[in-house]
Amino acid sequence: MSYDMAVLLVDDDPTVRLAVGRLVERMGYTVTRASDGEEAWDIVQQQHFPILITDWFMPGMDGIDLVKHLRQQESEHHAGAYTYIIALTGEDDPKLIKQGMDAGVDDFLFKHRARQDLDMRLSAARRIMSMHTDLQNSHARMREDLEAAERVQRSLLPESPPGIPNLLAGWRMDASAHLAGDLFNLFSIDEEHLGFYVLDVSGHGVAAALLATQLSRLMIPDMSQSQVVKEPREDAPWFRVVEPGEVFDRLNKSFPMSSRQMQFITMFYGVINHRSLVLRYAGAGHPRPIAIGDETRTLPFDDPPLGVKHGHSFTTHEVQMLPDERLFV
Q1: End-to-end CA distance of the chain, in Å?
Q2: Strand-strand pairing, 265-273 and 193-201
Q3: Residue 214 phi/psi, 5° resolution?
Q4: Tens of pLDDT along 18-72?
């Protein structure tokens, strides 16, 4: 029988290497032997072993140093390639056992009971490593899903600034994890107006990202997809640019914070006329933007985050922006 398990056996005593190695091989494992810690360390640099059986007291690099080196390597590489370590010792010493467990030993095999206990120790190792492999596979699938979701979320970000006279735009986004509860966008509403927003959903990860993505879809200035920022009229020019405060009234109604889903949204949304440089905006619990020109000023607002106050009426503010002034949101 074969369990597709490779075992590395380390002991400075050739008799022990021979005897224990044969026992392990009879149980269906492939055995590689090393005579000391240095040789074993060289071997594990070339091949991963699911199971390591190592003597404790050896000249040069002893068992505890080998274990520490291996666990340190696993920690640094984050590769998920875990090794189940069984310490082979002739001493049943509680202090030694604690020292080994602290260093990263998973189990102990006492030499005087090796023949009786080896199968039990290896069965436990095989079961743990099987569970570890399943977790690795699940983690890999989850990581692939998150990376795919991240690509979808990044596709919602602007690729290049709209070609609007008198206005230049730039941005940067670095998510702390694969998915973020933060999004932004800027877009032409009509021939005169540029709309732009920054939003932040409370929390992190998938739940925050899903809500941020849902909200961003409502901020599309295409009336066939959404009528939040732009709505149709029966006379020319056949649409109305919705005031920023009114936009927030609608979003606040659409995303109420519930006792089950304790999420809220902070947001800044502005609409600027590129000819007059008049900016109309609303803020919902978000950090205030800073305008830097000959002087530095902040854009004031006092409204709460979206979803916190049911029925709250958000205020639209107006400010005259100046040529060569820079606005940081």
Answers
A1: 66
A2: antiparallel
A3: -60, -45
A4: 989 999 999 889 999 999 999 999 999 999 999 999 998 898 898 889 999 999 9
Q: Map tokens 């596979």 to a residue.
A: 137
Q: Whole-angstrom Cα distance, residue 40 to residue 33?
A: 8
Please check whether residue 10 is in contact with residue 54, taking contact to mean a CB–CB distance below 8 angstroms: yes
Closest Cα partner for 216 from 158, 289, 149?
A: 158
Q: Residue 111 corresponds to which tokens in the numbers above?
A: 């030499």
Residue 158: what pLDDT? 81
How confident is the model at residue 2, as a pLDDT?
44
Is residue 245 very low, low, confident or very high in pLDDT (cuts 50, 70, 90)? very high
Pairing label, strands 182-188, 193-201: antiparallel
φ, ψ of residue 166 in degrees (nearest 5): 70, 0
Contact of 299 with 269, CB cutoff 8 Å = no
Angstrom CA distances, 158 to 121, 164, 170, 200, stand at: 57, 14, 10, 17
Q: Could you give phi then psi for residue 87, rounded to 5 degrees?
A: -90, 130
pLDDT (tens digit, 9 = 90+) per residue, 85-105?
A: 998 887 777 888 888 888 899
Beta bridge partners of 34: 10
Structural contact between residues 270 and 281, judged by C-beta atoms closer than 8 angstroms: yes
d(CA 61, CA 41): 9
